[in-house]
Amino acid sequence: MPVVTLSSPKGGCGKSTTALILATTLAELGASVTLLDCDGNQPLVRWKAGATRSRVKVLSAVSEREILPVIDRERASTGLVVIDVEGAATRLASRAVMRADLVLVPVSPSALDANEAARAIELVQEEETALGRRIPVQVSFNRTAVAMQSRAEVGIANELEAAGIPTLKTHLNMRAAFAAMFAYRLTLQELDPAKVNGVDKAIDNAMRFAGEVAELLREQQGRAA
């Protein structure tokens, strides 16, 4: 089954949030999902230890030596594997990219994140050369403005397009509900709208995002078949 790796050599660019939104949204739609938390801070493990009743399976403490067999085991028994790697160009991150059917490179609207996104894609291309196969990659914007794109967002998007770097159409906007998932340790659907603003709009945003990723995976599986 498909493996999606969230990768960037920079920390704090939204990898864990993007991974959690993708995994929990597709699980809500009926998919069986395993999340591999390979971030040293273990944000997804702490989330799963909360009150959530999500069916998403979260695994942690996967070492550099163990990660390939763990990915292979999980992809054989679950509908989707989502891997959140640490914000560094490590060997573990490299191995997570090796097994990926799709690499998402999260980017917040900052010039620093855009520069690191280009570096992340170069690292994916190095793995492609070593493996002799294509590894699809997409930049995934998060923390973007809800109503209107800022000049920074437009400028970064134009730079990525000019460089021929593929980017998901659906951005994960700056929404209180996305941060609240970690604060309350719940899925979007489990959040109380009386306590968190804009839950319904966050769910719609997450559904559109997850739908676009799922469609990319279906297209790739169709080409492979």
Q: What is the general shape?
A: globular
- Name of the CATH superfamily: P-loop containing nucleotide triphosphate hydrolases
* Count of alpha/pi helices: 8
What percentage of amino acids are in beta strands?
15-25%
- Identify the strand order in the major beta sheet: 3-2-4-1-5-6-7
Task: Label the structural class.
Answer: alpha/beta
Return the string of H and E elements.
EHEHEHEHEHEHEHH
The beta-strand count equals: 7
By CATH, the topology is Rossmann fold
Provide mean pLDDT, rounded.
Answer: 90
CATH architecture: 3-Layer(aba) Sandwich
Let me know the largest β-sheet.
7 strands, parallel
Distance between the termini: 13 Å
Number of domains: 1
Helical residue percent band: 40-55%
What secondary-structure arrangement, pairings included, does this model have?
Blueprint: E1 3-6, H1 15-28, E2 33-38, H2 43-48, E3 57-60, H3 67-77, E4 80-85, H4 91-98, E5 102-107, H5 111-131, E6 137-144, H6 151-162, E7 172-173, H7 176-184, H8 199-224
Helix pairs in contact: 1-8
Summarize the structure.
This protein is 48% helix and 16% strand. The protein is built from eight helices and seven strands, in the order E-H-E-H-E-H-E-H-E-H-E-H-E-H-H.
Report on this structure.
The chain is an alpha/beta fold and 225 residues long. It has a single domain (3-224), classed as Rossmann fold (3-Layer(aba) Sandwich), CATH 3.40.50. The protein is built from eight helices and seven strands. Helix 1 (15-28) packs across helix 8 (199-224). It is globular and about 50 Å long.
